[in-house]
Amino acid sequence: LKDTDKEREIEGKVVVVTGGTCDIGYAIADHFLNNGAKVAILLDIKIEEGIQAEKELNSKYGENKAVFIQCDVTVDSKRLSEYILRKFKHVDIFVNNAASVEENEPRKLMLINAVATIEWSIIFFKHMRKDNFRGEGGTIINISSTAAHNIDPLYATYKASKFAILGFSQSLGHKYNYNKYGVRVLTLCPGPTNTTLVNNVYNLYERKLVEKVIKYYNFATIQSSDNVGRGAVEVFRSSESGKSWDIVDEKPPVESPNTITVMPEF
Ligand SMILES: NC(=O)C1=CN([C@@H]2O[C@H](COP(=O)(O)OP(=O)(O)OC[C@H]3O[C@@H](n4cnc5c(N)ncnc54)[C@H](O)[C@@H]3O)[C@@H](O)[C@H]2O)C=CC1
Ligand SMILES: CCCCCC(=O)/C=C/C=C\C/C=C\C/C=C\CCCC(=O)O
Known about the structure:
Layout: H1 3-7, E1 14-18, H2 23-34, E2 39-44, H3 47-61, E3 66-70, H4 77-88, E4 93-96, H5 106-128, E5 138-143, E6 150-151, H6 156-172, H7 175-181, E7 183-190, H8 196-199, H9 201-204, H10 207-217, H11 225-238, E8 244-247, E9 254-255, E10 261-262
Parallel strand pairs: 1-2, 1-4, 2-3, 4-5, 5-7, 6-10, 7-8
Antiparallel strand pairs: 8-9
Helix pairs in contact: 2-11, 5-6
The structure holds 1,4-dihydronicotinamide adenine dinucleotide and the ligand CCCCCC(=O)/C=C/C=C\C/C=C\C/C=C\CCCC(=O)O.
Ligand LZSIJSXV is lined by residues 101, 145-147, 154-155, 158, 191-192, 197-201, 210, 213-214, 217, 222.
């Protein structure tokens, strides 16, 4: 097998997903296990949901296929990355998925969505680097959003965090870095997806305004988390480093535009 073929194989790989106990994160873990991953490690702040998610995935795929570890991504990166590497020896795929939409807690939002994504990416990039002792390469998948392509009146801080993730991931995953270090960095930009997070939008904004924004972007549907999980596996199997992929409307991934749409005044 060529290096790129090995890198794109899922069979036998160790996958870590932050915010992996529900919705999009859970669907990503589920699809990687379904396609032969050795184990999915779910890092999440929510204990009960974590225990439940581990149980469900183990009954679907077999004992010890899923392992829940309680984690606050904003404080636990050093301690838990060391623990995971001691216990599992190697991580092949690291997915930064955990997020908040609490606009009234902007510092916390930026810490979870942007700072933690950057910190965990750097830790596992170092671990995977092929020029490091025993570095075997690997893939980092960061979850941004179609919100990172758009300017409109909604959730400004959340958008800032998703712009940050997209810019960071495309730069770290740039072909130059990939050729030098052998670590792939990919970005996923889901559109509106039926999860706890997206349902919060009506607590923050008038329904009429949200409907106007959705209409402006022409989204046909609020897709399932399952479609994002399926798309993550498809992108993993086919994408070069540094690329970003939109997953919207229950359809397969398409490469993200390199442009920003500004919603006009209305
Ligand atoms: N739902 C949607 O329409 C879209 C979601 N996304 C992105 O997809 C990702 C997943 O979103 P959803 O599944 O919708 O969200 P969700 O709110 O349903 O799940 C997020 C998970 O992150 C965990 N989490 C939050 N703070 C944490 C912390 N400090 N430490 C550890 N875990 C923490 C939560 O406990 C939860 O399990 C996010 O990055 C989100 O921004 C992107 C575009 C659209
Ligand atoms: C609360 C923030 C939700 C962010 C979702 C996201 O990352 C990307 C959304 C992209 C476009 C949609 C724009 C605004 C509307 C957001 C959610 C609408 C939910 C609609 C519904 O559940 O019917």
